[in-house]
Design goal:
alpha/beta, Rossmann fold, 5-stranded parallel sheet, about 10% strand
């Protein structure tokens, strides 16, 4: 499109903003409702990290698989999971993504290629090796392959399962991508204190994998790097690692006092490292999208979240009879 300096057309840019805004409003509403005592279980919020999940998932289709983390809401929304069903799931209600029996840390939707959030650190990496092996097998008669993507945080990247998965993916030349969402903290432990290498790309090199580090608060940087890596995997080039350096706006979990943060760190993150603000400034500054168009999306998304909460609160809870459903595969 003439006058558009971005790798996406206007419609795609608006969709990217809508996805990121939906994640932000979804998480911010959970922050409020959890503090009121409305939501059972534990909640870990993705607010501040939206550009990474969105920039990567825009290259994927429903048959591509992802495995998420305990901080998985953003991955779910970006992969196409219904926010209305997600809200019911988080509220523990029937009609939720897993009929209200999984909650925040266990949302899954295989119809969208979302293999599940996971409360076990690093557990998604070996699952992705299996999904990538299946994709490679299906594609072995020729043509591009589906891909499988594992998301881990900087803390989970120190887990043995993650490192073993890097090795296995390299040995089998799998169409797998390992994304390290480096927000600087493993729970409350800083990356500098808990990890010996300066860059997670160094870890990839140890297993013969190519890797790249990008600014995870820059949607366009993530989008372009992910596009190259995913294309390489689809064409048989094997696994890669993508490190996204980013920030999280909230604590590790809801209720985290964040006493490990430096003075003014939270305020600086919100003022200067907000991926939505950076995206909006870029597209409006280039004259591709008007500020009013983004504001209209903001209002639409707020309405969606309000409806999602209202439906979740009105939905029935699972019954005792639901306890043994979805436990065993039925052939």
């Amino acid at each position: 499109m003439a006058g558009n300096p971005f790798p996406l057309n206007k419609e795609q840019l608006l969709q990217a903003y809508r996805t990121m805004r939906t994640i932000r409003e979804f998480e911010d509403r959970l922050h409020i409702d959890f503090s009121r005592g409305d939501i059972p279980g534990f909640v870990h919020l993705y607010a501040g990290e939206e550009a990474a999940g969105t920039g990567i998932m825009m290259h994927l289709g429903a048959s591509d698989r992802i495995a998420s983390t305990h901080r998985g809401h953003g991955h779910c929304i970006a992969k196409g999971v219904d926010p209305m069903a997600m809200m019911k799931e988080i509220y523990g209600r029937k009609g939720g993504s897993c009929e209200g029996k999984g909650g925040s840390m266990h949302i899954a939707d295989l119809s969208k290629g979302m293999m599940g959030a996971n409360g076990i650190l690093g557990a998604g990496a070996p699952l992705v090796c299996g999904a990538a092996l299946a994709a490679k097998y299906r594609a072995k008669k020729g043509g591009p392959s589906d891909v499988a993507i594992s998301f881990v945080g900087d803390g989970a990247s120190n887990q043995g399962t993650f490192l073993e998965s890097l090795n296995l993916a390299a040995v089998w030349n799998l169409p797998a991508i390992f994304v390290v969402e480096n927000n600087g903290y493993a729970e409350s432990t800083s990356r500098e204190y808990g990890t010996a290498v300066d860059s997670y790309v160094d870890r990839a090199a140890g297993f013969g994998l190519p890797g790249v580090t990008v600014d995870g608060t820059d949607f366009f940087a993530v989008y372009e790097a992910a596009g190259e890596i995913i294309k390489r995997a689809r064409e048989g080039g094997g696994p890669s690692l993508l490190e996204c350096k980013m920030v999280r706006f909230h604590g590790h979990f809801e209720g985290d006092a964040q006493t490990y943060r430096g003075a003014g760190e939270i305020e600086d993150n919100r003022a200067n490292k907000d991926c939505l603000k950076k995206f909006a400034a870029a597209v409006t500054g280039a004259g591709v999208i008007g500020a009013a168009e983004l504001t209209a999306i903001d209002h639409e998304v707020l309405g969606l979240i309000e409806r999602a909460v209202a439906e979740a609160k009105a939905a029935p809870q699972p019954t005792l009879a639901d306890l043994t459903t979805d436990v065993y595969v039925k052939y």
